[in-house]
């Protein structure tokens, strides 16, 4: 069982390491990175973070099949090298490639990584006139759940609840969803496939 897990872990690390090797912000490994496994892990994280921006620590650790201490060590080293950066988001610490996103992008990606806010954003991008009841029905959650998520989105500057629910940054959110759809879920992928129909052409 352990051997099978280690094989899967190595395969996962190699896949993301290949992305990391091509990433524009990849630097030279530190002098104390002598072990091949350490270099491969570091490269995998470099590949993972740009393709899954805003992922929190537990997701990154689990997706890359790393131990908690192992992940913490390499993330700290990469932050010290200036390859990645992190921000605290409520109970989560989220990771981003250094210098690529502004603060609004980071907040938006943080909420897109949460199931209910992401579902609300997708629903409102499809139908800007959707009501709270519409959103609750579409996401199969309670109205209080929608209200709580809406309050969080409003606090983040991504939603205006004056007279209903209106996204304040629809173009930005649409761009982020489409660009990183594969890193969210199947609904985001389906949305991205249909995104062209949601963009109005007004020369």
* SSE string: HHEHHEEHHHHEEHH
Count of structural domains:
2
**Major beta sheet, strand line-up:** 1-3-2
**CATH class descriptor of the largest domain:** Mainly Alpha
Count helical runs. Answer: 10
Largest sheet: 3 strands, antiparallel
Please give the radius of gyration in angstroms: 19 Å
Q: Please provide the count of β strands.
A: 5
Q: Would you identify the CATH architecture of the largest domain?
A: Orthogonal Bundle
What are the segments in which pLDDT stays under 50 over at least 5 consecutive residues?
A: 20-34
CATH-assigned fold name of the largest domain: Arc Repressor Mutant, subunit A
Q: Separation of termini?
A: 60 Å
Beta-strand percentage range: 5-15%
Q: Could you tell me the mean pLDDT?
A: 85
The CATH H-level superfamily of the largest domain is Winged helix-like DNA-binding domain superfamily/Winged helix DNA-binding domain
What's the shape?
Answer: elongated
Helix-and-strand structural type: mainly alpha
- The residue fraction in helices comes out at 55-70%
Secondary-structure topology with pairs:
Layout: H1 2-22, H2 36-51, E1 55-56, H3 57-63, H4 68-81, E2 84-89, E3 92-97, H5 103-112, H6 115-126, H7 132-139, H8 143-155, E4 159-160, E5 166-167, H9 170-179, H10 186-194
Antiparallel strand pairs: 1-3, 2-3, 4-5
Helix pairs in contact: 1-2, 5-9, 7-8, 9-10
GO molecular function, one term: DNA-binding transcription factor activity
Domain HTH marR-type: 121-162
Domain HVO-0163 N-terminal HTH: 39-109
């Amino acid at each position: 069982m352990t051997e099978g897990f280690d094989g899967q872990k190595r395969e996962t690390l190699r896949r993301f390491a290949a992305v990391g090797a091509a990433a524009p912000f990849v630097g030279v490994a530190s002098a104390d990175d002598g072990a091949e496994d350490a270099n491969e892990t570091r490269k995998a994280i470099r590949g993972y973070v740009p393709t899954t921006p805003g992922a929190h620590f537990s997701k990154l650790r689990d997706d890359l099949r790393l131990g908690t201490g192992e992940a913490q060590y390499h993330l700290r080293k990469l932050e010290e090298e200036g390859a990645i950066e992190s921000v605290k988001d409520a109970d989560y610490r989220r990771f981003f490639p250094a210098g690529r996103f502004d603060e609004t992008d980071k907040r938006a990606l943080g909420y897109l990584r949460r199931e209910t806010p992401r579902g609300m954003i997708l629903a409102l991008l499809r139908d800007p006139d959707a009501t709270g009841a519409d959103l609750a029905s579409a996401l199969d959650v309670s109205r209080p759940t929608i209200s709580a998520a809406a309050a969080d989105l409003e606090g983040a500057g991504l939603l205006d609840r004056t007279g209903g629910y209106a996204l304040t940054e629809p173009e930005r959110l649409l761009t982020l969803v489409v660009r990183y759809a594969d890193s969210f879920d199947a609904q985001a992928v389906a949305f991205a496939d249909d995104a062209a129909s949601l963009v109005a052409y007004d020369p």
